[in-house]
Amino acid sequence: MNEGQDFQEKKVGRSHSAPHGQAKERPSLGMDQSNAQSANEGPLKSRQRRHKKQIGKSDEGTAEAVMTESTKATERKDLSSSRRRKKQNTAPSQVDVTKPLDQDETKAAHQAHVSNASLNAPSRSPNEKATKNVDETMTSSDVQQRDTANEATTPGKSKKGFRAQRAPRKKEVSTVVDEKPNVQSAEAELSKPRRSRRGSQRKAAIKGSKEHDEKQSTDIAAGVDTGPINQHSIQLEESSQQTSTNALNTDDTEAKHRESTSNESQEVAETSSKSPTTTDKENGVRSKSSNDDDKPTSGTKLRTKNKARDKTRQSKPSTQAEAAENETSNEASGADSSKKETITCGDVAVNAKNEPSRTRTSKSIVYDEHLPLEAIQSGLDSGKFVVGNLRINKQNRQDGYVTVSGLDRDVHIDGIKNQNRALDGDTVVLSILPQRAWRTREVKAAISTSASISLAPSTNFSSTLQALWNPQIKAVEKAPKEAPVQAIELQEHILTLQARLKNSKMQPTAKVVHILKRSTEPYVGIIRVGKESALFDAFDKRLPRSIRIPIDDMPEKYRKTAKQFALSTLCLCRVTSWSPAHRSPNGTCVEVVGPAMSVESDIRALLATNNLLGHLKPFSKQIESSLPSSSNWKIPASELKVRRDLRDWTIFSIDPWTARDLDDAMSIRPLENDIFEIGVHIADVSYFIKEGTELDLEAQDRCTSVYLVNQVLPMLPRVLCEHLCSLNASVDRLAFSVLWHMRGDGSLVSDAPIWFGKTIIRSCCQMDYGTAQRILDGEESFEWPREPTGGHSKETIAKCVNDLGRIARARRSQRFASGAVQLHRPKLSFELDEAGNPIAMKEYPIRESNHLVEEFMLLANYLVAQHLLQHGPAVLRHHLPPEATKWENAWYHLEGCGFKMDPTTTLTQWLAQVGQQYGQVALKTVQHFLTKPMATAEYIIADQLTDYHRHFALNLPYYTHFTSPIRRYADVLVHRLLEKTLTGTSVKLEADVVDRCNAQKMNSKNAQQQCDKLFLTRYIKHTGEIETTATVVGVGARSFTVLLLAFGFEQRINAMDVATKFEFNDVSNVLHLTLSGGETLALALFAPVNVKLTTTNGLPLELVFRLCPPQPGL
Asked: Cystine design at 220: which of 159, 249, 301, 348 (Cβ 3.0–4.6 Å)?
């Protein structure tokens, strides 16, 4: 079952704490704090009301017309007084910020300013000056109470008169995050008469300082390069109105620039930053889409905040979640507002000692800072944090999941804000969110009875299982898994968390606070031309767009003809870093994949995304030179002496017609009383791959051959896999053979010995599946594509095939009747033209001849696993049962559609009944439902057999892979272990190598499936759109998932992409669609739909799905 079904990203509460690198308070430079508070608190609330009610209405003339004459007189008087003070104190108080000050100049300027400001400020004791100002620790409620008390002694206008006086100002963007609305506090603020006076004074100050601003062009150059500065200046005024650190500028162009910059830095995929910035709604403007290059604007003039605004921002969080986020933010930044105060001017901050320091402005914060390693280690030891690998939903980037050891369900990472710059495959440290933010999983009406029946081990067929497999080893009770060494606090934390999850439908959510290990996986995509860097858009939808790549890291062709390169080339890039100030990471160009829209480039791209690009590299000259020539190699005499010679036996192979790496062959010899000696002969690859050699290390790195539509990428050099190791007809080859006795009914002869040993064989016929099937079908007179050799007749080989077919048929029937499971998935087969383009397509047929080979290979693998366990460690292939919750969920949906399992049958028998009763469409859909929750089989090292090593699908207590050493490195390991049991040679067995076998096998499987889909897309591009039947296998409020029955894969489709109108009924779980032609469709589980498949015209080349009304009779 896919994780995350179209969950909308939750809105994250805003943090009111200052971000890392930005001070929480501004120095007063000697001004009375209480006066500054009362004088500056008004513009904040006034600006907020103006954004809500009068945005865009900036006609100051109209506003001034409604102001009373008494108010204007007061303004003129106050402004005149302000100008007189400014004129008197200009010489000693002005500080030239365009050049750095030495220590004496800084001290003198500061003393002069303090002396000037003290004319209007009450005296303070030395102790009071040395300590932190009391206003810095006051909450918003404290400020409100103090100002309310001040209003009682301050004459002013009434609330009504105040509203009449408020004049709209020019449109500007505030950079303050407002707290949650409070009606009472808002009314109290409206009643403050000094707000009106303060607003008038500020307008007058703007007008008076405009000419002065135009005469000066200021830079912040105190030893720090601040980058380009805007055309307009940044000036620190020393008047009583401007000591609140407001950088005044009324130019319309700059106001629009600040507005645009604020919008661009705030937009982060429907999440709001914790930094103290206003939202787009508060600003009254619409968010812009991301620019090509979204680095923060350097040198942008930002309006510095007054103290009242800072105190509002520092007020107590309204929720515990906000408080926790503030605490985490402070931990990450290490900021301490009590030790350092700064005034922000663009990208430069001036601290309390007038020393310029680099600071990041609040507008540039997009993601939270990652916590330092010291805090992470402390948090892990205390149980505050947990660790795991992040998985991101391929269909929905907002959904991330982490498996945490000790928890019975994944932790959900909701939204890119909580993912905090982590990518799929990263090892991350998580902070679990409060339980109120957890996700509630779907609650089932009742527990499925079929789920428990289908998973129950079979007890009615013990005699049949004994006859089929004759097991010689009994499993012991599994020892408790040794838990990783963890701090006691962490163990207690996980145990407590698991106790809360037990018997609940809750799924914990978390946010990423640190990335322990960044995934090095490269991504394929296209390049766009940016202003300062190349912009990379990956085809993988889990990555953000516009990954910045330095131009110097790009190929020379891009630097010469960037636009042409961007339109015609696929690139392979890797993420290198990701700043919290950017929406997208930085990257580097690993290599150029090739021309866009070519088959070779697409193949190279899918190999790269599955870590299989090394398969395209040629084998080194040292490896090639170490191998014998295929034309003159002969079996050494030393091997002839120690091996069993089976060259005169009737041994033959059955493989696909185009197969070149023939690693298995079979033989059958009748004995007596319907008993046969069966032989499975496997190429002895381990003879040529000596442990520790360069060839062995290369095979170990590749681990598997990759079978694509148009080519095979081998694990071994072709001289081995196609010649020296391949069991070709009429040539002598080295083999590892297993011989055992069987009856005609498929049962093993329990008292007959099983022989393992190295042999020399000579295959007499290279048969294909089609020829073998015609023999099994009873055809006698037909021409064989490949004739037998070595004097062996067609009749002899045909009799062997029929005998093997009869035994395999009986064995297969009993195997599935006793609990084995096989869920078939269709595989596509393409016919290519000379240019490699697909011109025909069909489903690859699975016939009885395929089943014949499968049965005897399964038995040989089982017998080898048993032999290894009897003599020492073994590499087993184990398959766990489906995860209980997912398995139950699948059956819940099946039972809701009327499919309920009969408790007297096995799963395979019940599936056969579904096919007979409901048809192949229903059977394929049911199989798909049951396949999704199935676990993936894996290789594992076992010293002693336990129930954990059981193979669920085969219903076997133990199993391994022995029969394909040419294309699987795990089989090579098994051959070496088997030889060790026979000769006593030592074998080096490492868990890391086994783990790589698992990873590469999965990568190979994914690459093959993606290649099938790639050629299907190219086939449709070449031949035109096709229409096919699909079945609905998932329904959501805004999307649905269909299973394309003919192609064997599912596709999620957004309703808005295929319908003009849609409506979801959450009671009946039905999605109603209205198509462009007016037709209506009701989509529910198992509903059949007709789907038309076309392709995109540009990059990437992908399938496009359209719905059409179902045809009558379907």
From this structure: 348
Judge whether 224 and 356 are in contact, CB under 8 Å: yes
Phi, psi dihedral angles at 1113 (to 5 degrees): 95, -10
Residue 60 has pLDDT above 80, yes or no: no
Residue 865 falls within a domain, yes or no?
yes
The answer to whether residue 145 scores a pLDDT higher than 90 is: no
User: Are the C-beta atoms of 527 and 536 separated by less than 8 Å?
Assistant: yes
Distance CA 67, CA 878 (A): 84
The pLDDT mean for the chain works out to 74
| Total count of domains within the chain | 4
Report whether pLDDT(349) > 80: no
Q: What residues have CB less than 8 Å from 724, skipping those under 6 apart?
A: 627, 628, 630, 633, 688
Read off the pLDDT of residues 73-102 as tens digits, 9 standing for 90 and up. 555 555 555 555 544 444 443 434 334 444
* 420 lies in the same domain as 527: no
At 639, is the secondary structure helix, strand, or coil?
Answer: helix
Residues 1103 and 1052 in one domain: yes
Backbone angles phi, psi at 324, to 5 degrees: -65, -40
Distance in angstroms (rounded) separating the CA atoms of residues 545 and 770:
49
CA distance 526 to 537: 6
Evaluate the omega torsion of the peptide bond into residue 100 and state whether it is cis, within 30 degrees of 0.
Answer: no
Half-sphere exposure in the Cβ direction for 451 (13 Å, CA): 22
Retrieve residue 1's tokens: 């079952």
Q: How many CB atoms lie within 10 A of CB 673?
A: 8
Q: How confident is the model at residue 674 (pLDDT cuts 50, 70, 90)?
A: very high
Q: Are residues 986 and 962 in the same domain?
A: yes
Mean pLDDT computed over 30-44: 42
Q: Which residue has the higher pLDDT, 5 or 822?
A: 822
| The pair of three-digit structure tokens given for residue 675, joined into one six-digit string | 């008993």
Do 297 and 536 contact (CB within 8 A), yes or no?
A: no
Query: Do 1000 and 1043 have their domain in common?
Result: no
Residues 799 and 864 occupy one common structural domain: yes
pLDDT at 489: 57
Could you give the 3-state DSSP secondary structure of residue 241?
Answer: coil
> Is 557 a member of any domain?
yes
- CATH classification at residue 576: 2.40.50.700
Say what angle helices 884-896 and 920-931 make with each other, to 10 degrees. 160
Instruction: Look up the CATH number of the domain holding residue 1052.
Output: 2.40.50.140
Distance CA 1105, CA 114 (A): 72
Question: Which of 962, 982, 1010 is the endpoint of a domain?
Answer: 1010
Instruction: Output the domain CATH number for residue 389.
Output: 2.40.50.690
Residue 1074 lies in a domain: yes
Q: Which residue type does 578 have?
A: W
What domain range is 496 assigned to? 373-443+478-517
Amino acid at the residue 167: A
What is the rounded CA–CA span in Å between residue 1109 and residue 812? 42
The string of pLDDT tens digits covering residues 725-746 is 999 999 999 999 999 999 999 9
CB contact burial 384-413 (16+ within 10 A = b; e otherwise): bbbbbbbbbbebbbbbbbbebeebebbbbb
Confidence of residue 531 (pLDDT cuts 50, 70, 90): confident
Q: Cα separation of 764 and 751, whole Å?
A: 31
Please give the pLDDT value at position 478. 64
Among 988, 1010, 1032, residue at a domain's last position: 1010
Residues 960 and 1038 in one domain: no
401 beta partners: 391, 412
Do 953 and 820 lie in a common domain?
yes
According to the model, what pLDDT value does residue 200 have? 52
Q: What is the distance between the alpha carbons of residues 347 and 218, in angstroms, rounded to a whole number?
A: 13
| C-alpha–C-alpha distance, residues 127 and 118, integer Å | 17
Please state, for a pLDDT cut of 90, what percent of the chain lies above it: 48
Q: What is the pLDDT of residue 810?
A: 95
Q: Tell whether 688 and 741 lie within a shared domain.
A: yes
Q: Is residue 465 part of a domain?
A: no
